[in-house]
């Protein structure tokens, strides 16, 4: 794998190695330093008294979208070995592998791509109506360090990336906090989170769907 100067600088900043990944001890230390797991709060945090309406809450558009883009696991390089790991346990500096059909498990920067190109659909995070293209620069034989975001979908190709942000520090978490989830795109007509007051939304769904 040939790395660009920007990629080498990023790996140095994150204190990680793209050939061996982090050690188990390093990962544990980073998780303690960050004080959080790779978990993003859902767009609607409901009070305890509405727990009985859980099936109805899941019918709210933003909650349906959130469940659809929530990653379950990830292929990560730890102690020099590729393992399938719970996505909530990823930390900054983890080296991950992305395959067609995967949900991107954390904010990350692409290091390499197999077979020349990887396409990643981030419409429900960024609002972009076209997939991001990760391609090799044939002149330098390196890959542009494209940024990908937790919740995006790999629609074509495969490659490796380094985790740059997790949980509450991800782009998805920011979009949700700012009540812009899911963002409007030309590819979807879903209602944005800003149009949904939690309690009003619950009452509407309870009336219409329950």
UniProtKB/TrEMBL annotation:
Subcellular location: Cell membrane
Keyword Mitochondrion: no
Coiled coil: none
Alphabetical GO biological process terms: intracellular potassium ion homeostasis; intracellular sodium ion homeostasis; potassium ion import across plasma membrane; proton transmembrane transport; sodium ion export across plasma membrane
Keyword tags: Cell membrane, Membrane
Highest taxon of the lineage: Eukaryota
Main localization (coarse): membrane
Any GO MF annotation of the entry: P-type sodium:potassium-exchanging transporter activity
GO cellular component: plasma membrane
Residues in P-type ATPase A domain copies: 70-177
Start and end residues of each Cation-transporting P-type ATPase N-terminal domain: 7-35
Membrane topology: Multi-pass membrane protein
Entry keyword Cell membrane: yes
Pfam family, any one: E1-E2_ATPase
PANTHER family in the record: CATION TRANSPORTING ATPASE (PTHR43294:SF21), SODIUM/POTASSIUM-TRANSPORTING ATPASE SUBUNIT ALPHA (PTHR43294)
Protein name stated in the entry: Sodium/potassium-transporting ATPase subunit alpha
């Amino acid at each position: 794998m040939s790395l660009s100067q920007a990629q080498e600088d990023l790996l140095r900043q994150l204190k990680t190695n793209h050939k061996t990944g982090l050690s188990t001890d390093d990962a544990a230390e980073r998780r303690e330093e960050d004080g959080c797991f790779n978990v993003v709060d859902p767009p609607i945090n409901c009070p305890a008294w509405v727990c009985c309406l859980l099936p109805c809450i899941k019918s709210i558009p933003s909650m349906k979208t959130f469940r659809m883009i929530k990653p379950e696991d990830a292929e990560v390089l730890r102690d020099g070995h590729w393992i399938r790991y719970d996505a909530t346990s990823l930390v900054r500096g983890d080296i991950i592998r992305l395959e067609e059909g995967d949900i991107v498990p954390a904010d990350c920067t692409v290091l390499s791509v197999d077979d020349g190109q990887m396409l990643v659909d981030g419409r429900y995070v960024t609002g972009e109506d076209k997939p991001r293209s990760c391609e090799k620069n044939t002149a330098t034989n390196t890959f542009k360090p494209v940024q990908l975001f937790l919740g995006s979908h790999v629609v074509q190709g495969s490659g490796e990336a380094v985790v740059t942000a997790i949980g509450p520090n991800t782009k998805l978490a920011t979009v949700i906090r700012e009540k812009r989830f899911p963002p409007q795109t030309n590819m979807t007509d879903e209602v944005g989170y800003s149009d949904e007051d939690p309690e009003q939304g619950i009452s509407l769904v309870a009336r219409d769907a329950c």
